[in-house]
Write the structure tokens for this entry.
Amino acid sequence: AAGPLVLGIESSCDETGVGIVRGRTLLTNTIASSMDEHVRYGGVVPEVASRAHVQAIGPAVAQALAEAQVRIEDLDAIAVTAGPGLSGALLVGVSAAKGLAAATGLPLYGINHLAAHVAVDLVAEDSPGLHTPTIALLVSGGHTEILRIGDIVDDIELLGATIDDAAGEAFDKTARLLGLDYPGGPNISRAAAGALDGTGVPGDPQAVRFPRGLSTAPDLRNPARRHSFSFSGLKTAVLRFVTAHEAGAGDRGIRLADVAASFEEAVVDVLVTKTLFACEDTGIDHVLLGGGVAANTRLRERLTERCAAAGVTLRVPPLRLCTDNGAMVAALGAEIASRSLAPSPFDFGVTSSLE
Ligand code: KG4
Ligand code: ZN
């Protein structure tokens, strides 16, 4: 297959990812995660992540080149996530990429992590091609955004983001207060399915009406809030609910499955509703879902239903490409390289924030 041969490095959070693509063909996608080291803290610890990246990055690059049977001198470009993300973590990937570029003389592209979550669909085996314009809903442990993508390289607009916890973080923190292990997303889903209390009876998503953040009528009229999210109040509401019910009578028969299903419903409801508002407001009839929370079955179901009802085409890349990885960075790097755009200036830095 034709197209530039690009190595991409991702280190914005806890995954050290190195991917290699040739044009729109994915050759390899090596991922080392420091997740195990964060479990006992109940969330990603930036310094721990940075140290793990330093240890993982060298072997990961070597492994990716070996798996793809590519020599460094065969590459056409190097791409690396420049932000947003944890700055100390980003610095490890950017420094490694600059070293490789300096040693080889290859062009180096600093990549926007959010755009890369969308661009990864270019290298999916079942990729329909990247339809633009599209709305993108990106939901992970580290970020939660709605984007308008007019062009994957030079027309990306942030429509809204979380003003506090990320969606995955809400799952993780709520799981913790429900006594479930980290990462919380999959465990809350299991609890909601009734798989953790031995009954196998699914919880009732309507059992408790937990708050939908930034969703009052005034919020929805406010352009700065209409496509934005807040999950910290939801977490607090769950805490208050379980505390009240534990302190109250055990005879109320509140099931963990009901609480988990109701929490999940509140998160999914607001994600889906606001994504469809974005479609409505922009007149765009395509949605792409990305990030680790795309693994949530209820989210995919509800988004599928609501998109179908609104005549919107939904695309979800394969789940292993939805979580943070190097292939997404390489995919966007290859797209930039194929347009013969200038490399990033060699002194580019990292950006921790969204803009
Ligand atoms: O993209 P990702 O793998 O990593 C980073 O955020 O860096 O996303 C991980 C996040 C975690 O917060 C995890 O709890 C959440 O995605 N997650 C889920 C599910 N699987 C993973 N959240 C809800 N439902 C799931 N099935
Ligand atoms: Zn991400």
Summary: The first helix runs from residue 35 to 38. Residues 13-14, 140-142, 168-169, 171-172, 183-186, 189, 291-293, 295-296, 323-324 surround KG4 (ligand 1) (CB under 6 Å). Residues 80 and 95 are 9 Å apart (CA to CA). Residues 134-316 form a domain with the Nucleotidyltransferase; domain 5 fold (CATH 3.30.420.40).
